[in-house]
Amino acid sequence: MTFPVFSSSQIEPSARGKEFGTRLRPRILANLSGYTDLFTVAGATGDQVRAWAERALDRSAAWAPGLADEIAGIAAGAGLEPWQVAAVNARTEILAAIDATTGAIAGEGECSTSVVLPDAAPARTVQTWDWHDHLRDAPVLWELEPRPGHVVRTFTEAGSLAKIGVNTAGLGVHFNILRHRSDTGDVGVPVHLIARRILEEAATVEEAAGIARSAEVSASTVITVVTASEAASVEISPAGVAVIPPGPDGVLLHCNHFLDPVLAPGERHASDRPGTYDRQRHLRANVAGLSRADLTARAHAMLSHGPDDAPVCAHPDLTQPINQRWETVATIGLDVTAGRLRVHHGGPCRVTEATWQTF
């Protein structure tokens, strides 16, 4: 199985969004429907979701007007209202708002990221991307050119402006969700838009961190920024932004808990999903495999299944409600020197040399 690919022909944000919305309308509508179901099961009303999405759109327009225009263009192309597309882009913020309002707890799951900086070779990366299994058909691979000569390629969800990706300036990003006590229902700039703006504007870790610091957020995440020779995990929360460098061995590992000593005391994700620590330990124990030049070998080094081992490769428990079911939807490596991604549809347990999709 492969993910659908779309290449934008438009550079102007509104026109690019409208083209994307028109061409991918069925997938965007299905994704919106899936998130509407998720928000409902998690405990939100339709009026709450709309209010949070409209707030996210307002904050986005103030921080990055072109990205807000692109969201409006997607809505026009897909036959939706802008707040509906904003809800897809702000799904992390809406889920954090639901959590802040109701105290809802999601099930065990989520992503694991590894970056290794060899002494004489470009960065070697791999991550699993876990999400709710009823949204497994949401991802698309999207190529766009936000300005002449600068190309962005991103693994994202239909209607969302970016997630994991690379640009032709030689920079890439991995993406993991976090939760912090400072997360709030006062919705801010969506973290997915931060990833997109990094891909549009940054060529260095320092530039990426500066973009992250410029956004007022309401939900937490970590964007691991990678170039051929440098990397850092940029931990983002309403309480602040921290930059986590690789260790002296050139290894940078991140799951779903804060590593920064100032932000870590506010950790909330790991209190509900302690498997994140098991996954971090599993990655550390398999650094030799994660350092391999071959991406398939790196993916296999990640392989571990719960409940007896670390739940790196997730499979849904169909007896649970949709907000408690997790699946490793994709396994992804970045090739920042070539400006491309290699993507496998599913978890590491099904990776072979033939299952990679190069984008």
UniProtKB/TrEMBL annotation:
Task: Specify the Peptidase C45 hydrolase domain's residue ranges.
Answer: 126-271
User: InterPro entries this protein is in?
Assistant: C45_proenzyme-like, Peptidase_C45, Peptidase_C45_hydrolase
Tree of life domain: Bacteria
Entry coiled-coil feature ranges? none
**Which Pfam family, giving just one, matches this sequence?**
AAT
Task: Name the chain's protein.
Answer: Peptidase C45
Native organism is Nonomuraea aridisoli
